[in-house]
Write a structure and sequence with these properties.
The chain has 433 residues and is an alpha+beta fold. The chain has two domains: 207 residues, Beta-lactamase, CATH 3.40.710; 143 residues, D-tyrosyl-trna(Tyr) Deacylase, Chain: A (3-Layer(bba) Sandwich), CATH 3.50.80.20. Helix content is 34%, strand content 17%. The chain contains twelve helices and 17 strands. Strands 11-9-7-4-12-17 form a six-stranded mixed beta sheet, with helices on one face. α2 packs antiparallel against α6 and α2 runs parallel beside α9. The longest helix is centred in the N-terminal third of the chain and has 22 residues.
Length: 433
C-alpha cells in the first residue's frame, strides 16, 4: 500500500501519518487475517410482529439454515394435521385372538401408524395392557409392517436405507422391549423411572414372550386387541425441537418429503419463496432459505399456534425453561437472565457448505420481535460464531427493551406421558335370524 502524506508543519504531518498508518493496519487486518482468527461474517434480519424491520443485514441472501429447517417442518405438520393429531398403532391377533392360560394362540400383529415418537416407554404401556387382557405369551410370530418405528435413528444419517431391513430392526427392538429378559441396562433404568412415575410395582415389569420369530408381511385376517394413541403432535414436535432431533424426518411419511415442503411454502408465498430449497426436512445436508423468509416462517408459526390457544414456546425451546440445545449452545445468553423468555431454534452444521451456526426465534419484548441470525461458512470457528451471535442478540434485546417473563411449558422428557392405550371394543355377537 502506498501512503501519500500532505506537506505542512512537522507535528501535523506526524498526526496525518499516524492516522493513515492506523487505518492501513485495520484494512490489512481485515483483508488478510491470521489463519484461525478469520472474521465472523454474520447475516441477520429482525422484524416486529407487524412486519416492521428493525435490524437487517443481507436479509435476502440464501444461506443454509441447518436445523432451523425444523421450524418449517413444524409449521407444515401443524398446518396440515393440527396440534392435537395423534398417530394410532394397532396391535391385533391372528386366529381370532384366542388365548388360553395366558398364551395367545396365533401371531401378534402390529399395524404401524407412522408414529414418529414411539419408544421403549410406549412399549411398556402396550405390554401392560396385553398382560391385563390375559396375554403373557404368544405362540406365533411378531408380525410388523413398514409403518412401525421404535427408538431413535438419528434421521437419514442413521436410518437403514433398505425398507425390509429397517422394518426387521424395528421389530427386533419391539420384541426385546416386550421381554424383560432381553432388556439392556438402559431399558432397566427406563422401567424403574416409569414405575416410579406411574406408581407401578417396580418388581413386576410387564412381559410378553414369543415362541415364534419375526415376520414382516401384514396378516390379512386379524382381530384388534388394542390401539396405542401417541402423544399430541404439538408435544412430539416440542420434543423434536428442544433437542433438535433429526427423526423429525419421520413425519415425511405422513406429510411429504423435502420437495413437498418447498412446494408447500411456494404455494403459500408465491415469489416470496424464491430460492427456497430443501434436501432434508431436518436441516441435514444442503438447504437454502433467506433471513427474511425465516422470519416470515416464525411469524406464521406463531400466528397458527395462537389460533389453537398455544404459544411459540409450546413447540420450540425457551431460554430459561429446562434443558435444550438453545441452553447449551448459547450459554452467555442464559447467564445473566436477560434473554430468559426468548424462544429460539438453533441450527448447526460442522462441515456442510462450510459449516454454519444459526438461530431463529422471537423476543417477547413489549413489542415482540422475530429474528434470524446466522454465521455462514463458520464451520472452522463455531464457538466464535455463536459468541458473535450472542453479542448480536444482546444488542437486539437492549434496543427493544427487557423481555417479558417466560411462561415455561411442561417438560415432556418421555413420549409416554400423554400417550393413550385403548382396548378394542368387544366383538358384537351375531343377531339371531
Amino acid at each position: 500500500m502506498t501512503i501519500f502524506v500532505a506537506h505542512g508543519p512537522a507535528a501535523a504531518r506526524r498526526r496525518i501519518v499516524q492516522t493513515i498508518v492506523t487505518a492501513a493496519v485495520a484494512v490489512l487486518a481485515t483483508a488478510a487475517p491470521v489463519r484461525g482468527q478469520e472474521r465472523i461474517d454474520l447475516v441477520w434480519h429482525a422484524e416486529t410482529l407487524s412486519g416492521k424491520a428493525v435490524m437487517s443485514k443481507a436479509p435476502d441472501r440464501l444461506v443454509n439454515p441447518a436445523s432451523v429447517v425444523k421450524v418449517a417442518s413444524t409449521f407444515r405438520a401443524l398446518q396440515l394435521l393440527g396440534p392435537s393429531h395423534r398417530f394410532d398403532t394397532t396391535f391385533a391377533a391372528t386366529g381370532g385372538g384366542a388365548r388360553r392360560d395366558g398364551v395367545l394362540a396365533g401371531d401378534l400383529v402390529v399395524v404401524g401408524g407412522k408414529d414418529p415418537d414411539f419408544h421403549f416407554e410406549n412399549a411398556l404401556l402396550v405390554a401392560r395392557e396385553l398382560n391385563r387382557l390375559g396375554i403373557r405369551e404368544v405362540a406365533g410370530d411378531l408380525v410388523v409392517d413398514r409403518n412401525f418405528w421404535i427408538g431413535w435413528e438419528r434421521g437419514a444419517a442413521g436410518r437403514e436405507a433398505e425398507p425390509d431391513r429397517r422394518a426387521h430392526a424395528m421389530a427386533q427392538r419391539l420384541l426385546d422391549a416386550l421381554n424383560p429378559e432381553k432388556w439392556s441396562e438402559e431399558n432397566k433404568q427406563a422401567w424403574a423411572d416409569a414405575a416410579q412415575r406411574r406408581s407401578w410395582p417396580p418388581a413386576s415389569p410387564p412381559s410378553i414372550v414369543f415362541r415364534g420369530g419375526i415376520r414382516l408381511q401384514a396378516a390379512p385376517e386379524r382381530t384388534p386387541l388394542l390401539t396405542h394413541r401417541s402423544e399430541p403432535l404439538s408435544t412430539a414436535l416440542h420434543r423434536f425441537n428442544v433437542f433438535s432431533n433429526n427423526d423429525i424426518e419421520r413425519l415425511d411419511a405422513t406429510v411429504g418429503g423435502p420437495g413437498d415442503l418447498a412446494a408447500f411454502l411456494t404455494k403459500r408465498w408465491g415469489q416470496a419463496a424464491a430460492g427456497i430449497r430443501f434436501e432434508t426436512t431436518s436441516g441435514l445436508n444442503s438447504n437454502r432459505m433467506s433471513g427474511r423468509q425465516i422470519v416470515r416462517l416464525v411469524r406464521e408459526l406463531h400466528q397458527l399456534l395462537q389460533q389453537h390457544g398455544l404459544q411459540l414456546g409450546d413447540v420450540l425451546p425457551v431460554m430459561g425453561c429446562g434443558d435444550s440445545t438453545l441452553r447449551h449452545l448459547f450459554p452467555r445468553l442464559r447467564e445473566d437472565g436477560s434473554a430468559d423468555g426468548m424462544v429460539g431454534k438453533t441450527g448447526t452444521l460442522n462441515t456442510t457448505d462450510g459449516g454454519v451456526s444459526a438461530l431463529a426465534g422471537m423476543l417477547p419484548a413489549s413489542e415482540p420481535v422475530l429474528f434470524f441470525v446466522a454465521a455462514p461458512g463458520a464451520g472452522h470457528a463455531l464457538a466464535r460464531a455463536r459468541a458473535a451471535e450472542e453479542d448480536w442478540v444482546g444488542r437486539l434485546i437492549k434496543q427493544r427493551g427487557p423481555l417479558q417473563p417466560a411462561r415455561c411449558p411442561a417438560e415432556v422428557k418421555t413420549s409416554d406421558l400423554h400417550a393413550q392405550v385403548v382396548p378394542a371394543a368387544p366383538a358384537q355377537p351375531a343377531s339371531a335370524p
